[in-house]
Write a structure and sequence with these properties.
alpha+beta, two-stranded antiparallel sheet, 6 helices, 22% strand
Length: 152
Amino acid sequence: MAFLDPFGPHLHWETVEALAITRKVDVIINFPLAMAINRLVTRNVDIPRNWVDMLDKCFGTHEWHNLAYDVQTDLFGDDQSRKRDDTAFRLLQLYHQRLESCFGNTVDPSLVKNTKGAPLYYLMWASSHPRGKAIAEHIMRAGDRITRPKPE
C-alpha cells in the first residue's frame, strides 16, 4: 500500500505509473484538485510556462489543457479561449481515467472538504488486483457519512 499525499501538483505521473507497473501496490492518493491544481488553471489561457510544465507532469499528458479551455469566436470573428465552468470535474475525470488505465481497478473518488464545506482534495484508490475494490468502495462511501461530534 502506498499513500501519496502531494503538496500541490508535485506528484509526477511517472511515479504513479512506476507503482502500477509493479502490480504489487495499491495506492491511495490525495488528489489536490481544489487546493492547487484548479487554481493553476487560470481563467485565461495565458498560464505561466512553469505551471504548464507542473500540470503536464502531474497528469502525464498535456490533454488537461484541451479539457480545461474552450475556444469561442467573439463578435469580431476572433477566437477567445476561456476556462470551462466544469474544468475541475473534467480534470478529475481525466486523472481518474488514467489511474484506471494504469492499475485496472479504481473506485469513485471521495471529496474531502474543510470545516466550512469548501472542497479541498479528492481521495482516490487504485489497484492492479480487484479483490480490494469492494473494501475500498465501502470505505470511500463511509467517509461521506462521518461527522464530527458537536462540542458541548
